[in-house]
Design goal:
This protein has 202 residues and is mostly beta strands. The chain contains four helices and twelve strands. The strands form two sheets. The protein has a six-stranded antiparallel beta barrel with strand order 1-2-5-4-3-6. A six-stranded antiparallel beta barrel has the order 7-8-11-10-9-12.
């Protein structure tokens, strides 16, 4: 379980396709303390919950390895990741941690595509679109997770929605790199999912 509050930016330093391309072994350099990363730990990368399968140090810099499986490569932006790709990272939530964003599972539902970017004083407004199946869970003032970042939806019309990114978020995440056409990992709000299911069952 996560909160959508990014705690580090990592960089892919090695990518090895295995199992006939249906599995990618990724090595990610990060700023986390090596002693605090155990095999089997969960770390979200751009909103995708991935399991640590190894870790170490390289010239004093922490790295860890994860496997991205066929399903992850099929439904997320992980299929586009390359050596040098920078990722938003978040460690799994611990009991007693501050819930600063909203409840995030790290199970990406699909892709949202950036339609437009509007530069504002020290901020940026992005308009995105997604499939109708996912758009029905997105509402103005509701929560959404984009590339692992917990955000508040500003507007939602049909399959298009917008978010406003404040200076701090632009500084500490990869969202500053978004451009029209960028493919973004989208996780819908867990509460919205259950609310829709309850409505369907009436």
């Amino acid at each position: 379980m996560f909160t959508g509050i990014i705690t580090d930016q990592g960089e892919i330093t090695a990518l090895t396709p295995t199992a006939q391309g249906s599995l990618h072994r990724l090595r990610i350099a990060c700023g986390y303390d090596r002693a605090g990363i155990a095999d089997g730990a969960s770390i979200a990368a751009n909103g995708i919950c991935l399991t640590v399968v190894g870790s170490g140090l390289d010239n004093g810099k922490t790295w860890y390895e994860v496997d991205a499986g066929a399903e992850t490569l099929a439904v997320t932006s992980a299929k586009h990741w390359r050596v040098g790709t920078r990722l938003n990272l978040e460690r799994a939530l611990k009991i007693g941690d501050e819930l600063g964003g909203h409840i995030v599972t790290g199970h990406v539902d699909g892709i949202a595509t950036v339609v437009s970017r509007e530069e504002l004083p020290e901020m940026a407004r992005f308009e995105l679109t997604t499939s109708r199946d996912l758009a029905r869970f997105i509402a103005a003032k509701g929560s959404v997770t984009l590339d692992g970042v917990s955000l508040t939806v500003n507007t939602a019309v049909d399959t298009t929605f917008s978010v406003l990114i404040i200076p701090h978020t632009l500084e500490v995440t990869t969202l500053s790199n978004w451009q029209p056409g960028s493919a973004i990992n989208l996780e819908i709000d867990l509460m919205a999912r259950y609310a829709a299911r309850l409505a369907e069952m009436k």
